[in-house]
Amino acid sequence: MPVKRQQISMLTGFILLAATATVLLIFGLYVSLQHSVIVFLLTVWMLAGTAAAAVSEGRKGKVREKDTVYDLKIFSGVFIGAIITFQLQAQLGMGAVAASSIVGLAGGIIFPRYAAAVYCGSFAGMCSPEIFPFFPCMTAAAFLCGVFFVLSRGIFEGAGGKLGTIAFAASLAVFALFPISPASSAVPLSPVSWIILAYSAAGAAVTRLLSSNLRLGPVIASAAVGLAAAVFLPLIHRGGQGELFAAAAFCASFAGMASPERIPAMRGMAAAGFLCGFLFIFTAPFGEGGGGKLGTIAFASVLSITGWKHVTLYVKQFKK
Q1: How far apart are the C-alpha atoms of 44 and 243, rounded to whole Å?
Q2: Domain extent at residue 156
Q3: Coil vs helix vs strand at 259
Q4: Which ranges constitute the DSSP H helices of 93-161?
Q5: At what angle do helices 115-124 and 218-236 cross, to 10 degrees?
């Protein structure tokens, strides 16, 4: 009986992650159709790759061992990380990227075993204080994020952006449960869009370099890239564009958290960062103000690449 409950728990987590990424991609599909056929086809390619990765992940899933004490600890890490990040924004006026990065760095340094949980919570805490009242909306988002994190343990391990996808699923649930509406942003146009793509590719590559080559680990590497982007890019680019570029680089840093088993080569990581920038641009009107959207963009980007890798391997085996 306990094994069956664990299977149901993991299946629920799997559906939450796959559905959240799919919803974002479908919206991107709708927006991209309004711009050009090439952009639309690239989004279709990403959606197909994500679907292939989800199928592959579902086939190899293993039931994790039940550990109630550990689950309570990681739930607490998520909840606390979300509340602290939100308060850094609401009480200190800190930007969402900087607040999440600081909480992620603190979690990675002080509580390395629970760093992923704290970092995941920080993404839920990136909810806009202008849209999410602290109680009940923000506390509900933090609570749901903790529950979804526990349900998703052992699924899509090593897939960059998973933590943000968990947080975005919680945000979407809060949007559905409470009488609040997400904000909407315009799709960034050229030349801004090209700069976004450049910073995104760099953000993913630098995160991989810090995480794997310098062995800082994915949480500290991503948080360091996010904090550097939040501090320096607004100084380089004025008029609010610096904050936009910082968000794009931070978004791509989550793709850079992908394990080498998922994306081995640096060129593949740069490609994942490029896809992050692409999806960042064409999902701008969707879900703004909710925490975790940036991670969901990265999650879909990583899965689209790994999914097509699985398809290629399958075709090669079939031909043999």
Answers
A1: 29
A2: 1-320
A3: coil
A4: 96-110, 115-124, 139-151
A5: 40
| Tokens, residue 201 | 């590719």
Could you give the angle at which helices 266-282 and 37-60 cross, rounded to 10 degrees? Answer: 120
Q: In whole angstroms, what is the distance from residue 80 CA to residue 142 CA?
A: 8
pLDDT over 70 (residue 63): no
Domain count, the chain: 1
**Residue 36 DSSP label:** -
d(CA 291, CA 132): 10
3-state DSSP helix/strand/coil percent for the chain, to nearest 5? 75, 0, 25
Residue 64: C-alpha distances to residues 78, 166, 246 (Å)? 19, 18, 36
Asked if residue 203 lies in contact with residue 253, where contact means CB atoms within 8 angstroms, the answer is yes
pLDDT digits (tens, 9 = 90+) for 204-219: 999 999 999 899 999 9
Stretch (H or E) spanning 258:
none
What token pair was written down for 241?
């564009």
CB 278 within 8 A of CB 197: yes
Condensed to tens digits (0 to 9), the pLDDT of residues 224-244 reads 999 999 999 999 998 889 999
